[in-house]
Amino acid sequence: MIKKIIYPSYSGLQPEGAAKRIRWVDTETNRSFFSILCCFFILSGMFFFLTLKGLPGNPKSTEIKDILDQPGKPFELSPERGRYAMVMSFIETGNFAMTKTLADAVYPDVGYHNGKYYSYFTPGVSLIAAPFYLIGSAFQMAQVASFSISSIFALFNIYLIYIISKKIFGLPLWAALFGGIIFAFGSNAWSYSTTLYQHHITTFLIYSSIFLTFLMKKNGKWSWIMALYIWAAYGFGAFVDYPNIILMAPAIIYFVLTTFDIKDSEKKITLSIKPMILLTSIIFFFITVIHGVYNQTNFGSWRTLSGSLIGVKSIRENTNLLSPDRKSEINKLQQKKNPVNFFKEDSVPFGLYTLLFSTDRGLFFYSPVFLLSLWGLTLILKNKSPETIVLSTTVGMVLFLYSSWSDPWGGWGFGPRYLIPALPALSIFIVYGLVRVTHQLFAKIIAFALFLFSSAVSLAGALTTNAIPPMVEAIPLHTKYNYFKNIDDLFLDKSSSFIYNLFFSKTFSLFSYFFVIYISLSILAFLILFIFPKINKNDI
Amino acid sequence: MTFSISIEKNKLGTFSQKIENIIGEKFLLVSSFILSLVSIIYSYRMNIIVAYGDAESHLNIAKRIISSLTPGLAQLGGIWLPLPHLLLTPLVYFDFLWRSGLAGSIISGITYIITSIYIYKTAYLTTKNKIGSMVASIFFMTNLNILYMQSTPMTEIPLICFLVLSLYYFVSYIKEEKLINLIYASFFGLLASLSRYDGWFFVIMQAAILFLRRFPFSKFRENLRKRGLTLFPFFTEKSEGELFLYSTIGFVGILIWIIWGFLILGDPFYFTNSEFSAKSQQNGFLARGQLPTYHNLILSILYYTVTSSTIAGLFIFAITAIAWILFLKDKNIKHRYLISILLFSPFLFNVVTMYLGQSVIFIPSLTPADFEWQLFNVRYGLLMIPAVAILCGYFFVKTHRLGKTVLTGVFISYFFLNSVGYSRPLAMTDGTSGLSKGSHPGAEIWLRDNYDSGLLLLDDYARTLSIIGSGVPMQNVVYLGNRGYWEKSLTSPQDVVRWIVMQKDDTVWNKLYKDKNMQGVVFKYYNKVYTSDTILIFRKI
């Protein structure tokens, strides 16, 4: 059946003010592509599921330290330990103060205040994981269910990349899908979609805000709901991770600027403002007040952040635990600590090198497919749309913030995890370049080859461990400091995958398991890049 | 529902015109004066005017010319170029201005104000836009590293002043061909060459540009055939005249200094051959394997790039790089390559000197963590600030609303970033806690409280303690530059000095304490009145 669809005049590939586009589409074809989309997302979900980290059961607090915190185990690193411990505390006691057992398990990322122990991490991720924990507990899968929220948000992020590529930049289906898999499976985002970190939630909040702002510009009717969501996302973003206040700034500025409209006529300039944006900001202030109450209740002041609590590690190293002056000594240490001091401009050159080029964390070393994003960026910047600017600025903001952080490595980890919020934008730049390039086949072959390498590395990381030390720590320990360590683990059958360990470890080698997933992914990428465009010449 | 506000364009135009009428050299004079004064007051109250060890050395050199056991121009020495010290001399006559360092603040402050105005004028030569030129000047004036250094007796700001003045007149000459501008350019080049060695490179570059811009490329082979290997093929009449006129004034400073080295110190290249030269100091780093840029061009470029970008502000530097590309592509600017060479001549100079081992920079983001010091000489990056400022002004003029918004946003954000400690003026940090920091040991405080009278023997080169901080009058200090007194003090101190201050392994220590015979003499005639791990003070019995 043929159907008439009218598109707005503006998309990324057409100048503003162009006539509205009218497409006559075959709804049978439409249904086929809906099926393709569903299959794509089901497959993607399967890839996450097959690599989800975990073990069956509902781990007790006494089992975390020394049993489940070994490399390759679900709580191998302190961030997931800390967040999971917060879930346990919240469910079991109704607050986030941890028992001493949990505090020892979470060490060294644990702070101390007024006789109680608190994780350094904000409670947002744990709050989202809590219902999954409860549901999972009923099936003896509390840990796996909690970790699955990262995979769910990763799927949402793939969808956001798809929808932004299609609706904002007018890219064809194959490009939009390829952008999604570059992000999800061609980068270290895969490793962090299988464990309990904040990165995918942060990424979701940023890109959903950007997309909804774009929709708001077109759709007057429901814009107040979208505005409410965006303000709520910003407020909640700080609950997920404090740096989100800065990371989400480009999206929020873009959102606020949509309230202004400047009309330049011959004799005058007219500035129009929509008050709805300001009215809906009440939800942001409401969430911020809740955050303040949380800080006040737990840490004694609404301005005290969990990251600024004095660490148990610092107390043990600097004070005499038996001293009668212990309390005043602890207070003195507390006053010296200021989290803002961890960010310095003169750290930026080394930080940029570490995050982009180094052999222990460099994006281009782990995922060379993102080299194409530089080329894509030069092409997309010719289109000076607000959406291009906000995506570019988001990448810039992520790079600026984390390259000036005193620990750009992100502790022990797999690849540059701090860059995950920038990767969707970079993925969009890549596919934008692939669509606009003159010799498309040649470019696709290069992109495919780079994707094959990048996804192999990412899959090795997702299946084995994230506990890779930075070079400065690895050298004294005489251990490897990049994905070569993961490759070693791959051949030693050291896997963190829940499905593999539960069902396949006795039957197949880990390398075989890796191979099956890798081939499936490669076939999917091949289909998307080379076959879909042939099928769909009149792409919606 | 929307609210609307309308502004009539003719009112905006009037407002913009009023702004253009206000800005100009007078406005810059007033604003730079206010900024300079505020910075000097701040540095004075924080007691950081003489934070740099070199800052005190510059003040002391000037003081010794007029107030020393052996006063005179010979106190200028042969390492640092003389002009900044000569400028300080009338002011350090007053003890308060000497000890507080305000003598240096006055000189640096005046040169800062002049530079602010001439950056505006130089930017105007290329942009012909008052607002853009004002932007250039503002970027220079508000740089925190510049503001700190202009409150100190260091020599960077006077050098920058002479470089900018020379640059302005040189560019004016290239554009208008008025000989008086060439004379001014060479004169200020002369002053720069008497301030710091960067000035030598600058005058050489200007001379090279004069030579190359009129080089008869198309007629070269024909002229060579006609006249053989004489000067004729290389010059036209005009270029010959230009070059000789420029060189007669511009190179005089270099000539004077070489002759000075020969006459006063016995070596025309004393400034680089002597044991007190920068090269000798760098040999110490080289021996310890802590001279990473030595014979390493890539690292030399990287170090200076990172240093100048950190001093300018990383994001401002990134905009400067974009602006430079636009500048080079702008065919409307006729002599853009020549102007670029001059703007970036400090960059070339510093890369070359680091490569040759004549200078060293330590900066936290590049220097290995196992080096003893992570921060040293980052102030060398200040010399790129004029280029950054002028190119930012150009960027403001040439870009549309987005570019102007980005530049303004970055500029404003730096105020916020500085206030929360994210960005820090590294030049100030180097002076207060880096390797450049002056040493103020406990012995200095002791001496300030206990010194009464008499001559005091001190190896000032070793910077055992601060003469300024010790309160000892300069004319009572016996140091290496007091010929006759110094030598005699090291053989029979009891006949010359009442006080001896020595630091472990300095010259006084080696001559009077390490030598057992002399140690006996010292203990015979002196009491040890102060002891620390590294410093001993003796007073005559």
UniProtKB/TrEMBL annotation, chain A:
State if Transmembrane helix is listed as a keyword.
yes
* Highest taxon of source: Bacteria
- Transmembrane stretches in the record are 33-52, 117-135, 141-164, 171-190, 196-215, 245-263, 275-294, 363-381, 388-406, 418-435, 442-463, 510-532
Q: Does the keyword Protein biosynthesis apply?
A: no
Q: Which UniProt keywords apply?
A: Membrane, Transmembrane, Transmembrane helix
- Protein name in UniProt: Glycosyltransferase RgtA/B/C/D-like domain-containing protein
UniProtKB/TrEMBL annotation, chain B:
Q: Which Pfam families does the entry mention?
A: PMT_2
Q: Record's superkingdom?
A: Bacteria
* Boundaries of every Glycosyltransferase RgtA/B/C/D-like domain copy: 102-213
Q: One GO MF term, please?
A: transferase activity
The UniProt record lists the keyword Transmembrane helix: yes
What UniProt keywords are attached to this protein's entry? Answer: Membrane, Transferase, Transmembrane, Transmembrane helix
For this protein, the parts annotated as crossing the membrane are 27-44, 65-84, 96-119, 131-148, 154-171, 178-194, 200-217, 243-265, 301-325, 337-358, 378-397
Official protein name in the record? Glycosyl transferase family 2
Organism per entry: Candidatus Gottesmanbacteria bacterium GW2011_GWC2_39_8
**Native organism taxonomy:** Bacteria, Candidatus Gottesmaniibacteriota
